[in-house]
Amino acid sequence: MKPSWYVIIAGCGRLGANVAGMLSNMGHSVVVIDRKESAFEALPIEFTGFTIHGDVAAIEFLREAKIHQANMVLAFTNDDNTNFMVAQIAQRVYHIPRVISRVYDAGNLALFHEFKIKTLTPVLLATGALNKVIHRYMEESG
Amino acid sequence: MAQFLVADDEQRVRSLIKTYIEMLGHEAVVVANGEEALRQLFQDSYDGLFTDLRMPGLDGMGLIRAIHEENIHLPTIVVTAYASVESVIEAFQLGVVDFITKPFSSEEIKRAVQRILRQKIQLKETNQYIRGLIEQKALFEAVNYLKPLFSEYPSSPIPHYLFGLIQETQGDFSGALRHMQAALALEPGYDPATRKIIEIRKKIEEDRS
Lengths: 142, 209
Prior knowledge:
The structure holds 2 protein chains of 2 kinds. By secondary structure, chain A is of the alpha/beta class. Chain A has a single domain, classed as NAD(P)-binding Rossmann-like Domain (Rossmann fold), CATH 3.40.50. Chain A has helices at about 15-25, 60-65, 80-95, 110-115, 120-140; strands at about 5-10, 30-35, 50-55, 70-75, 100, 120. In chain A, β5 (about 100), α4 and β6 form a beta-alpha-beta unit. Chain A is globular, with a radius of gyration of 17 Å. Chain A starts with 5 loop residues before the first strand and ends with a helix. By secondary structure, chain B is α/β, with parallel strands linked by helices. Chain B has helices spanning about 10-25, 35-45, 60-70, 85-95, 105-135, 140-150, 160-170, 175-185, 190-209, and strands at about 5, 25-30, 50, 75-80, 95-100. In chain B, α5 packs antiparallel against α6 (about 140-150), α6 packs antiparallel against α7 (about 160-170) and α8 runs antiparallel to α9 (about 190-209). The chains are: A alpha/beta, B alpha/beta. The interface between A and B is medium-sized, with 16 and 17 residues.
């Protein structure tokens, strides 16, 4: 049996929903938590996991998601404070080996890195990608 | 390779259980409610059942009760997000092997499949042991081992077949014939019972002549 991870995704926005679909399509067991029930409508058709309607800021919902057995936790809500808290609980309380947090405000990155939380910052990723494209254009135009 | 039946009204959940069962090299048939599950059980034979408790129409407890009433031996795992203490107690009384709470990991399904398959192996090993005792004519010991099998595996032909063998060894051919026929009624096409019925009928005719 190929390894199947147990992954918890906090936040079912566009990023959370797409990653949930991708991971469940790969055969992993995925639990998505969001405080808005309507957010789960964004989940793609291929998603074959679980949804929990609740506020991830309340630890009971992380417990309901069986966070203790997670191989990976993704803090993908649209709030940096909530993501920081979820990542901290996953890393420090439950010792989850892989924790990634989305960071909206690049100004908060230093704090996340100080606590050794792996981060994903869409603005920086987009800027980096755009930078490469512009360089290629400039090289092509001589 | 074993075949499992999965009953859950949530398409995502039944697909996930099916995926995990298939990843273990077994087969799974999925249905959305208790009625469909019962229809499948009457059509085909399964090694185990995974069922949700809350389903529209015939729910999980209704399904488990119906399986019990029909004397179908089917190791069952309940997969649920909500279970009252009363339903847990009743489910275990009706022979449910285990409970898995949602959400679950692939590991939990893997352990459940292994548990179901272990039960099958236990019946096979006990069957072989009792046959050995009958061959050695240790009939009293054989009966003691056999008695619990009637309640543990009420829908299996094996306990009746073994009891028939004991009666045949004791020279009670008509009693043996009745148990062999009971074994066949539980599993039409159960070859050992069919062969024995032919042998025992010959012995009865020889006795008469």
